[in-house]
Design brief:
Largest sheet: 12 strands, antiparallel
Number of helices: 11
Helix content: 25-40%
Number of strands: 12
Amino acid sequence: MKHFILLILLAVPAVQAATVEAPSPAATENDRPTFLEPIGDFARDSILQPKTPFELVPGKDPNGWGFVIQPYVWALGLNGDIGVKGLPASHVSYSSRTIIQHLDWGIFLRGEIRKGRWGVLADGYYAALSASASPNNRIYDSANLDVQQSIVSLALAYRVIDDRRGFLDVYAGVRYNFLGTQVDASLNDSRINEIATNATNAIGKQIETRLESALAAARSNVEQASATAGEPIANAVLKTVRIRELERLILGDRNLQQLVQDGVIVRSLTNGGVRRALSSYVRASAAAKAARVRGEIDSALEAAASKAKTKLSNAIAENIEDVTPTYGGGNKYWFDPIIGLRGQINFSRWLYLGAQGDVGGFSAGSQIAWNVQAAFGVNFTRNIFAELGYRYMYVDYENNGFLYNMNSYGLYSSIGFKF
Protein backbone atom coordinates (compact mmCIF):
# COMPACT_ATOMS: atom_id res chain seq x y z
CA MET A 1 0.00 0.00 0.00
CA LYS A 2 2.83 2.42 0.85
CA HIS A 3 4.44 1.71 -2.51
CA PHE A 4 1.17 2.45 -4.34
CA ILE A 5 0.69 5.83 -2.57
CA LEU A 6 4.32 6.79 -3.34
CA LEU A 7 3.79 5.95 -7.03
CA ILE A 8 0.71 8.22 -7.17
CA LEU A 9 2.59 11.11 -5.52
CA LEU A 10 5.38 10.85 -8.09
CA ALA A 11 3.01 10.57 -11.08
CA VAL A 12 0.89 13.69 -10.36
CA PRO A 13 3.67 16.29 -10.95
CA ALA A 14 4.74 14.46 -14.10
CA VAL A 15 1.19 14.63 -15.48
CA GLN A 16 0.94 18.27 -14.55
CA ALA A 17 4.26 19.01 -16.29
CA ALA A 18 3.14 17.12 -19.36
CA THR A 19 -0.08 19.13 -19.40
CA VAL A 20 1.82 22.44 -19.32
CA GLU A 21 4.52 21.49 -21.86
CA ALA A 22 2.20 19.96 -24.47
CA PRO A 23 -0.46 22.54 -25.44
CA SER A 24 -3.62 21.39 -27.07
CA PRO A 25 -3.97 21.37 -30.85
CA ALA A 26 -6.40 24.26 -30.60
CA ALA A 27 -3.91 26.35 -28.68
CA THR A 28 -1.17 25.64 -31.27
CA GLU A 29 -3.46 26.79 -34.11
CA ASN A 30 -4.36 30.02 -32.33
CA ASP A 31 -0.74 30.88 -31.47
CA ARG A 32 0.56 30.52 -35.09
CA PRO A 33 1.63 33.88 -36.72
CA THR A 34 -1.12 33.84 -39.33
CA PHE A 35 -0.12 37.21 -40.77
CA LEU A 36 2.77 35.46 -42.55
CA GLU A 37 0.54 32.98 -44.33
CA PRO A 38 -0.58 35.32 -47.18
CA ILE A 39 3.04 36.21 -47.89
CA GLY A 40 4.06 32.58 -48.03
CA ASP A 41 1.08 31.67 -50.16
CA PHE A 42 1.74 34.53 -52.57
CA ALA A 43 5.42 33.63 -52.91
CA ARG A 44 4.56 29.99 -53.54
CA ASP A 45 1.55 30.46 -55.81
CA SER A 46 2.68 33.52 -57.81
CA ILE A 47 6.50 33.46 -57.83
CA LEU A 48 7.92 30.01 -57.11
CA GLN A 49 5.29 27.66 -58.51
CA PRO A 50 2.29 29.64 -59.76
CA LYS A 51 -0.91 27.61 -59.70
CA THR A 52 -2.85 30.08 -61.86
CA PRO A 53 -0.33 31.92 -64.08
CA PHE A 54 -1.23 34.94 -66.17
CA GLU A 55 -2.92 34.01 -69.43
CA LEU A 56 -1.96 36.17 -72.35
CA VAL A 57 -4.91 34.77 -74.26
CA PRO A 58 -7.66 33.45 -71.92
CA GLY A 59 -8.07 29.71 -72.26
CA LYS A 60 -4.68 29.25 -73.94
CA ASP A 61 -1.79 27.42 -72.26
CA PRO A 62 0.07 30.19 -70.34
CA ASN A 63 3.34 28.27 -70.69
CA GLY A 64 3.08 28.07 -74.47
CA TRP A 65 4.10 30.51 -77.13
CA GLY A 66 2.37 33.89 -77.20
CA PHE A 67 2.59 36.87 -79.55
CA VAL A 68 1.47 40.51 -79.35
CA ILE A 69 1.36 43.18 -82.06
CA GLN A 70 0.37 46.64 -80.84
CA PRO A 71 0.30 49.69 -83.14
CA TYR A 72 -0.08 52.94 -81.23
CA VAL A 73 -0.23 56.70 -81.59
CA TRP A 74 1.75 58.95 -79.26
CA ALA A 75 0.66 62.60 -79.12
CA LEU A 76 4.05 63.66 -77.82
CA GLY A 77 5.15 67.10 -76.77
CA LEU A 78 8.80 68.21 -76.76
CA ASN A 79 10.73 70.50 -74.46
CA GLY A 80 14.51 70.82 -74.48
CA ASP A 81 17.59 71.77 -76.49
CA ILE A 82 18.85 70.56 -79.87
CA GLY A 83 22.24 71.52 -81.22
CA VAL A 84 24.30 70.56 -84.26
CA LYS A 85 27.98 71.22 -84.82
CA GLY A 86 28.58 74.66 -86.28
CA LEU A 87 25.45 76.25 -84.81
CA PRO A 88 24.44 77.17 -81.27
CA ALA A 89 21.87 75.05 -79.47
CA SER A 90 18.23 75.90 -80.09
CA HIS A 91 15.49 75.57 -77.52
CA VAL A 92 12.29 73.85 -78.59
CA SER A 93 9.04 73.82 -76.68
CA TYR A 94 6.15 72.23 -78.55
CA SER A 95 2.83 71.07 -77.21
CA SER A 96 1.27 67.84 -78.43
CA ARG A 97 -1.06 69.87 -80.63
CA THR A 98 1.85 71.74 -82.24
CA ILE A 99 3.70 68.48 -82.92
CA ILE A 100 0.65 66.97 -84.58
CA GLN A 101 0.31 70.07 -86.77
CA HIS A 102 3.97 69.91 -87.84
CA LEU A 103 4.33 66.12 -88.04
CA ASP A 104 5.17 65.13 -91.58
CA TRP A 105 4.62 61.45 -90.90
CA GLY A 106 5.34 58.78 -88.30
CA ILE A 107 4.91 55.14 -87.31
CA PHE A 108 4.65 53.66 -83.79
CA LEU A 109 4.66 49.94 -83.02
CA ARG A 110 5.17 47.50 -80.14
CA GLY A 111 5.59 43.76 -80.19
CA GLU A 112 6.16 40.86 -77.83
CA ILE A 113 7.10 37.19 -78.11
CA ARG A 114 6.65 35.05 -75.00
CA LYS A 115 7.28 31.46 -73.95
CA GLY A 116 6.48 30.70 -70.34
CA ARG A 117 8.29 33.10 -68.04
CA TRP A 118 10.61 34.38 -70.76
CA GLY A 119 9.82 36.99 -73.34
CA VAL A 120 11.30 39.38 -75.90
CA LEU A 121 9.95 42.95 -75.88
CA ALA A 122 10.22 45.36 -78.80
CA ASP A 123 9.07 48.97 -79.04
CA GLY A 124 9.93 51.58 -81.62
CA TYR A 125 8.83 54.60 -83.56
CA TYR A 126 9.96 56.86 -86.37
CA ALA A 127 8.76 60.44 -86.79
CA ALA A 128 9.64 63.35 -89.07
CA LEU A 129 8.59 66.90 -88.31
CA SER A 130 9.32 70.48 -89.34
CA ALA A 131 8.97 73.35 -86.89
CA SER A 132 10.50 76.57 -85.62
CA ALA A 133 12.86 76.96 -82.67
CA SER A 134 14.38 79.67 -80.51
CA PRO A 135 18.21 79.81 -80.70
CA ASN A 136 19.95 80.13 -77.35
CA ASN A 137 22.09 83.00 -78.65
CA ARG A 138 20.74 86.52 -79.20
CA ILE A 139 22.73 86.98 -82.40
CA TYR A 140 20.21 84.63 -84.02
CA ASP A 141 16.65 85.75 -84.50
CA SER A 142 14.92 82.43 -85.21
CA ALA A 143 15.55 78.97 -86.58
CA ASN A 144 13.67 76.37 -88.56
CA LEU A 145 14.18 72.70 -87.73
CA ASP A 146 13.72 69.59 -89.83
CA VAL A 147 13.98 66.64 -87.46
CA GLN A 148 13.89 62.92 -88.14
CA GLN A 149 13.88 60.80 -85.01
CA SER A 150 13.77 57.07 -84.41
CA ILE A 151 13.94 55.15 -81.15
CA VAL A 152 13.84 51.34 -81.09
CA SER A 153 14.08 49.21 -77.94
CA LEU A 154 14.76 45.48 -77.77
CA ALA A 155 14.89 43.69 -74.42
CA LEU A 156 14.84 40.23 -72.85
CA ALA A 157 12.23 39.92 -70.09
CA TYR A 158 11.77 37.45 -67.24
CA ARG A 159 8.47 37.10 -65.36
CA VAL A 160 9.22 37.39 -61.64
CA ILE A 161 5.58 37.40 -60.51
CA ASP A 162 3.17 35.28 -62.54
CA ASP A 163 -0.43 35.28 -61.40
CA ARG A 164 -3.87 35.52 -62.97
CA ARG A 165 -4.37 38.75 -61.01
CA GLY A 166 -1.32 40.32 -62.67
CA PHE A 167 2.37 39.96 -63.36
CA LEU A 168 5.75 41.68 -62.92
CA ASP A 169 8.57 41.43 -65.46
CA VAL A 170 12.16 42.52 -65.11
CA TYR A 171 13.90 43.24 -68.40
CA ALA A 172 17.24 44.36 -69.82
CA GLY A 173 18.27 45.25 -73.32
CA VAL A 174 19.37 48.03 -75.62
CA ARG A 175 17.73 51.13 -77.08
CA TYR A 176 18.77 52.46 -80.49
CA ASN A 177 18.51 56.23 -80.99
CA PHE A 178 18.70 58.03 -84.32
CA LEU A 179 18.43 61.77 -84.83
CA GLY A 180 18.74 63.61 -88.11
CA THR A 181 18.61 67.40 -87.88
CA GLN A 182 18.77 70.28 -90.33
CA VAL A 183 18.78 73.81 -88.90
CA ASP A 184 18.24 76.96 -90.95
CA ALA A 185 18.67 80.06 -88.78
CA SER A 186 18.27 83.78 -89.43
CA LEU A 187 20.50 86.44 -87.89
CA ASN A 188 19.26 89.28 -85.73
CA ASP A 189 20.48 92.27 -87.77
CA SER A 190 19.61 94.87 -85.17
CA ARG A 191 21.49 92.93 -82.50
CA ILE A 192 24.56 92.55 -84.73
CA ASN A 193 24.50 96.28 -85.51
CA GLU A 194 24.30 96.97 -81.79
CA ILE A 195 27.32 94.74 -81.17
CA ALA A 196 29.25 96.46 -83.97
CA THR A 197 28.40 99.92 -82.61
CA ASN A 198 29.48 98.97 -79.11
CA ALA A 199 32.71 97.48 -80.46
CA THR A 200 33.41 100.59 -82.53
CA ASN A 201 32.88 102.81 -79.49
CA ALA A 202 35.27 100.66 -77.45
CA ILE A 203 37.84 100.77 -80.25
CA GLY A 204 37.29 104.52 -80.57
CA LYS A 205 38.10 105.10 -76.91
CA GLN A 206 41.35 103.18 -77.28
CA ILE A 207 42.30 105.14 -80.40
CA GLU A 208 41.39 108.48 -78.82
CA THR A 209 43.67 107.76 -75.87
CA ARG A 210 46.58 106.86 -78.13
CA LEU A 211 46.05 109.87 -80.38
CA GLU A 212 46.07 112.17 -77.36
CA SER A 213 49.39 110.69 -76.25
CA ALA A 214 50.90 110.95 -79.73
CA LEU A 215 49.66 114.54 -80.19
CA ALA A 216 51.02 115.57 -76.80
CA ALA A 217 54.44 114.20 -77.72
CA ALA A 218 54.47 116.07 -81.05
CA ARG A 219 52.49 119.16 -80.05
CA SER A 220 55.15 121.70 -81.09
CA ASN A 221 55.49 120.18 -84.53
CA VAL A 222 51.72 119.91 -85.01
CA GLU A 223 51.14 123.54 -84.07
CA GLN A 224 53.52 124.67 -86.81
CA ALA A 225 52.58 122.08 -89.42
CA SER A 226 49.98 122.06 -92.16
CA ALA A 227 46.72 120.10 -92.29
CA THR A 228 48.66 116.96 -93.20
CA ALA A 229 50.40 116.90 -89.84
CA GLY A 230 48.00 114.20 -88.60
CA GLU A 231 49.43 111.64 -91.04
CA PRO A 232 52.64 110.71 -89.18
CA ILE A 233 50.70 110.65 -85.89
CA ALA A 234 48.15 108.27 -87.42
CA ASN A 235 50.93 106.01 -88.67
CA ALA A 236 52.48 105.93 -85.21
CA VAL A 237 49.16 105.01 -83.58
CA LEU A 238 48.37 102.29 -86.14
CA LYS A 239 51.67 100.62 -85.34
CA THR A 240 50.48 100.17 -81.75
CA VAL A 241 47.23 98.43 -82.72
CA ARG A 242 47.40 94.65 -82.27
CA ILE A 243 44.98 92.32 -84.07
CA ARG A 244 44.25 90.25 -80.98
CA GLU A 245 43.54 93.39 -79.02
CA LEU A 246 41.18 94.54 -81.75
CA GLU A 247 39.35 91.18 -81.68
CA ARG A 248 39.11 91.38 -77.91
CA LEU A 249 37.36 94.74 -78.20
CA ILE A 250 34.92 93.32 -80.77
CA LEU A 251 34.33 90.30 -78.55
CA GLY A 252 33.12 92.48 -75.72
CA ASP A 253 29.67 90.97 -76.29
CA ARG A 254 29.24 87.68 -74.42
CA ASN A 255 27.09 86.22 -77.21
CA LEU A 256 30.02 86.52 -79.61
CA GLN A 257 32.35 85.10 -76.97
CA GLN A 258 30.09 82.07 -76.59
CA LEU A 259 30.02 81.44 -80.33
CA VAL A 260 33.81 81.44 -80.41
CA GLN A 261 34.05 79.13 -77.40
CA ASP A 262 31.55 76.72 -78.96
CA GLY A 263 33.55 76.67 -82.19
CA VAL A 264 30.71 78.24 -84.17
CA ILE A 265 32.84 81.20 -85.25
CA VAL A 266 36.19 79.87 -86.42
CA ARG A 267 37.31 82.64 -88.77
CA SER A 268 38.84 85.95 -87.75
CA LEU A 269 36.56 88.81 -86.73
CA THR A 270 39.15 91.27 -88.03
CA ASN A 271 39.46 90.55 -91.74
CA GLY A 272 40.96 92.92 -94.32
CA GLY A 273 37.82 95.01 -94.61
CA VAL A 274 37.76 95.72 -90.88
CA ARG A 275 41.46 96.57 -90.82
CA ARG A 276 41.17 98.96 -93.78
CA ALA A 277 38.17 100.66 -92.16
CA LEU A 278 40.13 100.95 -88.91
CA SER A 279 43.08 102.54 -90.73
CA SER A 280 40.79 105.09 -92.39
CA TYR A 281 39.14 105.87 -89.07
CA VAL A 282 42.49 106.41 -87.30
CA ARG A 283 43.77 108.71 -90.08
CA ALA A 284 40.59 110.77 -90.21
CA SER A 285 40.50 111.11 -86.42
CA ALA A 286 44.20 112.08 -86.31
CA ALA A 287 43.68 114.78 -88.94
CA ALA A 288 40.69 116.25 -87.08
CA LYS A 289 42.53 116.22 -83.76
CA ALA A 290 45.65 117.77 -85.27
CA ALA A 291 43.52 120.63 -86.60
CA ARG A 292 42.05 121.19 -83.15
CA VAL A 293 45.54 121.30 -81.64
CA ARG A 294 46.34 124.11 -84.06
CA GLY A 295 43.21 125.90 -82.88
CA GLU A 296 41.24 125.12 -86.02
CA ILE A 297 37.77 123.62 -86.13
CA ASP A 298 37.55 122.05 -89.56
CA SER A 299 34.00 120.79 -90.13
CA ALA A 300 35.09 118.78 -93.16
CA LEU A 301 37.69 116.90 -91.13
CA GLU A 302 35.21 116.32 -88.30
CA ALA A 303 32.63 114.97 -90.77
CA ALA A 304 35.23 112.74 -92.36
CA ALA A 305 36.15 111.29 -88.94
CA SER A 306 32.49 110.64 -88.11
CA LYS A 307 31.92 109.00 -91.49
CA ALA A 308 35.01 106.82 -91.05
CA LYS A 309 33.74 105.66 -87.67
CA THR A 310 30.39 104.68 -89.22
CA LYS A 311 32.19 102.76 -91.95
CA LEU A 312 34.21 100.89 -89.31
CA SER A 313 31.01 99.94 -87.49
CA ASN A 314 29.45 98.73 -90.76
CA ALA A 315 32.58 96.73 -91.62
CA ILE A 316 32.50 94.99 -88.25
CA ALA A 317 28.78 94.20 -88.61
CA GLU A 318 29.26 92.81 -92.13
CA ASN A 319 32.16 90.66 -91.02
CA ILE A 320 30.20 89.24 -88.07
CA GLU A 321 27.44 88.29 -90.49
CA ASP A 322 29.95 86.73 -92.88
CA VAL A 323 31.66 84.55 -90.28
CA THR A 324 28.50 83.53 -88.39
CA PRO A 325 26.93 80.38 -89.93
CA THR A 326 23.19 80.17 -90.46
CA TYR A 327 22.82 76.60 -91.71
CA GLY A 328 23.91 73.28 -90.31
CA GLY A 329 22.84 69.73 -89.81
CA GLY A 330 23.82 66.12 -89.56
CA ASN A 331 22.79 62.63 -88.54
CA LYS A 332 23.67 60.89 -85.32
CA TYR A 333 22.89 57.49 -83.84
CA TRP A 334 23.83 55.84 -80.57
CA PHE A 335 22.91 52.88 -78.36
CA ASP A 336 21.83 52.95 -74.72
CA PRO A 337 21.80 49.90 -72.43
CA ILE A 338 18.54 49.78 -70.46
CA ILE A 339 17.13 47.95 -67.43
CA GLY A 340 13.55 48.15 -66.26
CA LEU A 341 10.36 46.74 -64.80
CA ARG A 342 6.98 46.10 -66.38
CA GLY A 343 3.82 45.07 -64.57
CA GLN A 344 0.07 44.69 -64.85
CA ILE A 345 -2.81 44.49 -62.38
CA ASN A 346 -6.09 42.91 -63.48
CA PHE A 347 -9.18 44.54 -61.97
CA SER A 348 -11.39 42.10 -63.81
CA ARG A 349 -11.23 39.88 -66.83
CA TRP A 350 -11.83 42.92 -69.04
CA LEU A 351 -10.16 45.86 -67.28
CA TYR A 352 -6.54 46.23 -66.20
CA LEU A 353 -3.80 48.74 -65.32
CA GLY A 354 -0.31 48.43 -66.82
CA ALA A 355 2.90 50.30 -66.02
CA GLN A 356 6.47 50.24 -67.25
CA GLY A 357 9.70 52.07 -66.45
CA ASP A 358 13.36 51.80 -67.35
CA VAL A 359 16.59 53.72 -67.08
CA GLY A 360 19.56 53.60 -69.44
CA GLY A 361 22.46 55.33 -71.05
CA PHE A 362 24.93 55.34 -68.14
CA SER A 363 27.31 57.39 -70.36
CA ALA A 364 27.67 54.47 -72.77
CA GLY A 365 25.55 56.43 -75.24
CA SER A 366 23.38 59.00 -73.53
CA GLN A 367 24.56 60.45 -70.27
CA ILE A 368 21.23 59.28 -68.83
CA ALA A 369 17.86 58.31 -70.30
CA TRP A 370 14.49 57.62 -68.65
CA ASN A 371 11.30 56.05 -69.91
CA VAL A 372 8.11 55.65 -67.85
CA GLN A 373 4.54 54.98 -68.87
CA ALA A 374 1.21 53.83 -67.47
CA ALA A 375 -2.06 52.92 -69.14
CA PHE A 376 -5.56 51.60 -68.56
CA GLY A 377 -6.46 48.69 -70.80
CA VAL A 378 -9.62 46.96 -71.94
CA ASN A 379 -9.86 43.44 -73.36
CA PHE A 380 -12.61 43.58 -75.98
CA THR A 381 -12.20 39.92 -76.91
CA ARG A 382 -9.75 37.11 -76.16
CA ASN A 383 -7.48 38.44 -78.90
CA ILE A 384 -8.15 42.19 -79.19
CA PHE A 385 -7.44 44.88 -76.60
CA ALA A 386 -6.95 48.65 -76.39
CA GLU A 387 -4.99 50.97 -74.09
CA LEU A 388 -5.01 54.65 -73.19
CA GLY A 389 -2.09 55.99 -71.21
CA TYR A 390 0.65 58.55 -70.67
CA ARG A 391 4.32 58.27 -71.54
CA TYR A 392 7.39 60.32 -70.59
CA MET A 393 10.92 60.01 -71.93
CA TYR A 394 14.05 61.99 -71.12
CA VAL A 395 17.28 61.76 -73.11
CA ASP A 396 20.49 63.64 -72.31
CA TYR A 397 23.01 63.11 -75.11
CA GLU A 398 25.97 65.24 -76.13
CA ASN A 399 28.91 64.27 -78.31
CA ASN A 400 31.31 66.22 -80.55
CA GLY A 401 29.12 69.31 -80.91
CA PHE A 402 25.89 67.31 -81.25
CA LEU A 403 23.38 68.01 -78.48
CA TYR A 404 20.06 66.35 -77.73
CA ASN A 405 18.71 67.18 -74.28
CA MET A 406 15.02 66.53 -74.59
CA ASN A 407 11.85 65.76 -72.62
CA SER A 408 9.23 63.88 -74.65
CA TYR A 409 5.80 63.40 -73.10
CA GLY A 410 2.13 62.98 -73.87
CA LEU A 411 -0.91 60.73 -74.09
CA TYR A 412 -0.85 57.61 -76.20
CA SER A 413 -3.51 55.18 -77.36
CA SER A 414 -3.21 51.80 -78.97
CA ILE A 415 -5.07 48.79 -80.21
CA GLY A 416 -3.41 45.41 -79.90
CA PHE A 417 -3.74 41.87 -81.15
CA LYS A 418 -2.60 38.82 -79.17
CA PHE A 419 -2.50 35.21 -80.22
